[in-house]
Amino acid sequence: MIKLSKTDILIAGVGGQGTILTGRIIAALAIAEGLDVKTAETHGMAQRGGSVITHVRIGEKVYSPLIPLADGDYLLSFEKLEALRWLPYLSPRGTVIVNTQELEPLPVLTGQTEYSTGILEEIESKAARLIAADALSIDPVSKNARMVNTFLLGILAQTMDFDKKKWLDVMEQTIKAKLVDINKQAFEAGWQFALKSG
Amino acid sequence: MNAKRLIMTGNEAIARGAYEGGVTVGTAYPGTPSTEILENLALYEEVDCNWSPNEKTALEVAIGASMEGARVLAAMKHVGVNVAADPLLTLSYTGVGGGLVLVSADDPGMHSSQNEQDNRHYARFAKIPLLEPSDSQEAKDYVIAALEISEKFDTPVILRSTTRISHSRSTVIPGERKEHEVKGFKKNPAKYVMLPGFARLRHPLVEERLLALQEEAEKSPLNRIEQGSKEIGIVCSGVAYQYAREALPEASFLKLGFSHPLPKRKVREFAAMVEQIIVIEELDPFFEEQLLAMHLDVPVRGKELFGLLGELGAEIIREKILDQKVEPITVRDEIPGRPPVMCPGCSHRGVFYTLKKLKLNVMGDIGCYTLGALPPLESIDSCICMGASIGLALGMAKAKHDSAENTVAVIGDSTFLHSGITPLLDAVYNKAPITVMILDNSTTAMTGHQQHPGTGISLQGEPTPRVDLESLCSALGVKRVAEIDAFDLKELRGTIKDELEAKEPSVIIVRRPCVFLQSTFEAPPYVDREACTGCGTCIKLGCPALSLKEEKAKINNTICTSCGLCEQLCRFDAIKPAEEKAGDKIV
Fold first, then answer.
1. Interface membership of B484 toward A (CB under 8 Å)
2. Mind listing the pLDDT tens digit for each residue in B563-579?
3. Whether complex ipTM tops 0.90
4. How would CATH label the architecture of B349-517?
5. Do A6 and A58 form a contact (C-beta atoms < 8 A)?
6. What does CATH list as the number for B526-580?
7. A105:B170 CB<8 A
8. Domain residue ranges of chain B, discontinuous segments joined by +
9. pTM of the model as a whole
């Protein structure tokens, strides 16, 4: 549950996966709730398929836009390996929400190295809580892979303290009109997934 | 809480500040982390915005508009200011008409840059004021303050952002636009014609202005003391203030927003309140050296704690000042890296594959194609600055060693128009038999697909005359100009070999639009697993859509764009176009 003083959310992924949009929705929600918020994003060269991270910090008053090492309350990862990479930024009391999809980085594709095994086990043993979802197998993400971000957002939202309706309102204001409905479905699917994960 | 609060990136806020401040002209050349400033400013119909071919031109256009009396903002990345430094240093002498703000977006940590120079030095160098916002609200407000300082003191003003200001979002309370009347140009040779005789009369005014600006900085609300414990006094600016404020809630702060010229009396006032001063600033000891030169009564430290490299953060400040070390979760050492890569379907891939196969020395340039330096293509041998590829190849030819014969310069279309034309002219004029490849993907790709003079479309998306690269090269005197398809490996190889043998300058224009500009693609090819020997030749393309699984090539259908390079490379005819497929897909 959200700490009143400050909540730090890391959104990790691969350039082009939509971590920035997810950060924008969370930030818009914080504003709607009358809280202070700051984000820090990855643009430019790293966006070309590289490892990217968006920092989102919510609280009564936020100074640094960057989440310090070991300070994150949530690590929302769009890809499995990226969850492991950014784990040191999570507080040992923090929650990892991960899409278990594997996107092989180029050194793996070209056979220089192998994709890490046992990632979820390692995260589970080190983070206070892990919610792992194979988002691409769950409707509507199974029909539209671009909905991964709002699906994961639905999981995050369910574990936080804000009113569900507020999230949906904010999505309406942040997302392009023709994509609002399917994003809301994905959000709901994520919300339900989180409920089932306890 | 105020319902009017918006959330904006620093770049959006800078654009908003320019709008509210009555700016009517905006200029820029794209460059991370500055690009979105002009893109956002262009959304306000009151502001006439244009992409210039380079930063020098952008600043010159801004100067002209200012001389007409318009308020104007020019935006560029830190290294862009180097390109614009020539007009900037003399602009300091002429001063302005309408308020002129130069935004320098620096990149500590080099997220997307070739160096991490500290552009605060430019303010000292040019003897002009420097403002450093620490969040989006200040980014907006400081643009307005900068316009006013610019007009009041007849000076250009540098507003320095950094990646963590430009690409961070925070709350902003927007204000109304205040229109600024454009009064037109008034002839004034003694002010604007910097002949030596006139410039000698202007220089003393620059020095007097600097003293007056220091007085202004002394009383400016942008420089403030936040009194806390007297044990530690922090002097800082920009995003470093936010890091320090979070790490050291008890400390006293001198937060510098109007940071050059340094308000020295304010510094002394602050020094009298604390037992020691710690300067927290990213990169160079810009404040620290000035404070040390003041011989304050309290000790001053900074770089001995924080070093000269990269970005800061709250954790390093806690560690160095409070001796508080965090113990983060440790993970295994071996995590495969995920470097940025050329996209599937990138028009540059075949070029660098071919250059590697030909074992050439490749003088590279700035753009997405600089990724051709990374494995597995590993075929770029230099990257210095915009346009450098051609000058470097020319210099190699002049050094007259045999290796120069195996050298090509590789430059993108936007980069060529930015600063590749002049060195190509140099090569023609000085009869250097260099081979230049212009990789024309019809956009400024790396920074997010901006238009440029070679695309025939303006910033606003309107049609505009398009420069024809072939005619341009011919007009410079290049006799050998070839145009080839970036996806034709045979033609690439043949043309490069032919042009290397030529005894005069030659240009190969390699064409294919950036894959991002295309929205529909042909069905991906498939791998005939019987025919595939698992030799791995196709994998050497470094395409994210290709991998070797169970000793057979595998194509990732969801990201393949059917560029056809892997089909051309396969000696066993194992990669076949979609229409040849019989039965179920094997991939």
1. no
2. 999 999 999 999 999 86
3. yes
4. 3-Layer(aba) Sandwich (3.40)
5. yes
6. 3.30.70.20
7. no
8. 6-181+191-219, 223-322, 349-517, 526-580
9. 0.96
